């Protein structure tokens, strides 16, 4: 049901409707003004602050330099063990036992671990078997040499006997020749006797004078045969025959007629003697031919024996060569056996020197193989079976500046400081130097030895080494954070009394870590800006907020 508005209320309602929008607009304007005015004020404040910051001097921290005595030179270095290495496996196999762990102190030769290596054992057994086989071969070869030498001796003995047989056959030839000569002489005598007998028959009818002449001839003939008999050219029978002829001719002188019949008998007898003598000559020649054949056979046999001796000697030489080859095989087998024996000994891993175990990289059952060489001297190697270091004596390598290379000599004393042990300086000695300066840094690598009987110091520590130089000169030093290194070189930012910045190039000397030595470019009274920023301009003003001497 619609409600009726009274007249008075209708008037009030119209007034409200007329002034409602005006009031809303006014309210929005007021609210806008209230929000805009603070923003405008804030912006103006920010602009003013930015202008002030742009024109204000930047704040900087200022430090000063100081002069330091050069009596002692302080250099940094790392503490190292005098000896440190990685213990490698020399045999392949599995780790069977471990006798040490990290931190264990060991002696040289002490067993660190056992490796089970069946392959090495089998190889060693095979090498020993090969050695035994080679030795047996040597024995057989030596026996063959002895047998061959016996054959040579036998052949030489037979050769000597054959030489004797040749001489005997040659003697038989000479005897046969003598018999031939004797038979021929007998035949000649028989023929002469036959001729004489015939001549006697023919001359028996001659005169006695001829008989006397025959007597003389017979006498001469007898003398001749006597001489021949002494020389052995005629037989006794021939001589006797000549003597008989002499007697016969003598008798013939007395009884020529009687001798005619005797002469005829002699002719017959002489003919028979000639026939018999010819038979003897033929037999003697046959004996000579047989003896010559025996000599030829003996010589041929001798040549055959010479060939046998040469062959036997060749066999001896071949057998001796076999012995030499077998002995070489024995030497090779023995060397191989010794090699595998050495490899078997590597199953026991031992410490190379006195020291402490710094690393253990294997467990029982780990498979290991012969390792490779490890470069460097890390005391905690990650490869190999163990790491070991000798720490009763330590060493520190420092880089000695060229300025002091003549002041610090081997034997010079040194003090070593460890940050964790500030009240305990350690005494060391300069041991040696490299003998040549590094051309880049102009420093000499120098070794300092440090006794460590109690094991207080550990390899790998950072140390400061103080070396007495004895120069007594003072040098200018500044904190290292004052340096600015850019394309214009090494510079520092100096603040003058007007609070203005001036960049100066400087020449550096030694680096002491937190401090550096300034050789030229600034003086002791100059104030330097620590950690100069890239916003600093040469000649610009700065606001010093802190400062003090270099520490």
Automatic annotation (TrEMBL):
GO terms for molecular function: efflux transmembrane transporter activity. GO terms for cellular component: efflux pump complex. Signal peptide: none annotated. Residues 204-266 form the Multidrug resistance protein MdtA-like alpha-helical hairpin domain. Residues 398-468 form the CusB-like beta-barrel domain. Pfam families: Beta-barrel_RND_2, HH_MFP_RND. InterPro entries: Beta-barrel_RND_2, MdtA-like_HH, RND_pump_MFP. Belongs to the membrane fusion protein (MFP) (TC 8.A.1) family. This is Uncharacterized protein. It comes from Capsulimonas corticalis.
């Amino acid at each position: 049901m619609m409600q009726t508005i009274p007249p008075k209320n209708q008037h009030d309602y119209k007034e409200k409707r007329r002034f409602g929008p005006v009031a809303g607009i006014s309210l929005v304007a007021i609210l806008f003004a209230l929000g805009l005015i603070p923003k405008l004020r804030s912006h103006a404040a920010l602009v003013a602050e930015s202008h002030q910051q742009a024109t204000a001097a930047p704040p900087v921290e200022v430090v000063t330099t100081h002069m330091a005595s050069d009596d002692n030179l302080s250099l940094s270095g790392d503490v190292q063990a005098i000896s440190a290495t990685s213990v490698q496996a020399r045999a392949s196999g599995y780790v069977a036992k471990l006798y040490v762990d990290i931190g264990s102190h060991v002696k040289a030769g002490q067993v660190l671990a056992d490796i089970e290596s069946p392959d090495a054992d089998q190889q060693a057994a095979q090498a020993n078997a090969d050695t035994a086989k080679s030795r047996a071969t040597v024995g057989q070869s030596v026996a063959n040499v002895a047998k061959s030498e016996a054959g040579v001796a036998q052949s030489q003995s037979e050769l000597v006997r054959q030489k004797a047989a040749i001489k005997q056959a040659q003697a038989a030839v000479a005897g046969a020749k003598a018999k031939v000569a004797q038979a021929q002489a007998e035949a000649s005598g028989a023929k002469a006797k036959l001729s004489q007998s015939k001549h006697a028959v023919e001359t028996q009818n001659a005169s006695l004078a001829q008989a006397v002449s025959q007597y003389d001839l017979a006498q001469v003939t007898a003398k001749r045969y006597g001489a021949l008999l002494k020389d052995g050219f005629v037989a006794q029978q021939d001589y006797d025959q000549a003597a008989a002829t002499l007697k016969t001719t003598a008798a013939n002188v007395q009884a020529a007629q009687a001798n005619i019949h005797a002469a005829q008998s002699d002719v017959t007898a002489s003919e028979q003697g000639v026939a018999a003598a010819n038979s003897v000559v033929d037999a003697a020649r046959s004996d000579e031919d047989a003896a010559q054949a025996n000599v030829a056979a003996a010589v041929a046999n001798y040549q055959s024996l010479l060939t046998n001796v040469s062959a036997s000697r060749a066999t001896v030489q071949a057998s001796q060569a076999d012995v030499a080859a077998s002995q070489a095989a024995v030497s090779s087998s023995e060397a191989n056996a010794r090699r595998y024996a050495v490899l078997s000994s590597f199953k026991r891993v031992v410490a190379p020197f006195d020291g402490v175990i710094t690393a253990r990289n294997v467990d029982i059952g780990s498979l290991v193989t012969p390792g490779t060489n490890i470069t460097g001297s890390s005391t905690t190697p990650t490869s190999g079976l163990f790491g070991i270091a000798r720490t009763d004596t330590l060493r520190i390598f420092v880089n000695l500046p060229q300025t002091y290379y003549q002041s610090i000599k081997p034997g010079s004393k040194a003090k070593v400081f460890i940050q964790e042990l500030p009240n305990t300086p350690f005494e060391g000695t300069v041991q040696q130097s490299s003998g040549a300066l590094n051309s880049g840094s102009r420093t000499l690598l120098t070794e300092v030895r440090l006794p460590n009987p109690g094991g207080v110091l550990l390899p790998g520590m950072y140390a400061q080494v103080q070396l007495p130089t004895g120069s007594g000169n003072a040098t200018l030093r500044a904190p290292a954070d004052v340096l600015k290194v850019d394309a214009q070189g090494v510079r520092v930012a100096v603040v003058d009394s007007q609070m203005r910045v001036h960049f100066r190039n400087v020449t550096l000397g030694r680096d002491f870590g937190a401090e550096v030595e300034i050789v030229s470019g600034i003086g002791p009274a100059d104030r330097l800006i620590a950690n100069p920023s890239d916003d600093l301009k040469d000649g610009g003003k700065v606001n010093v907020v802190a400062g003090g001497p270099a520490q």
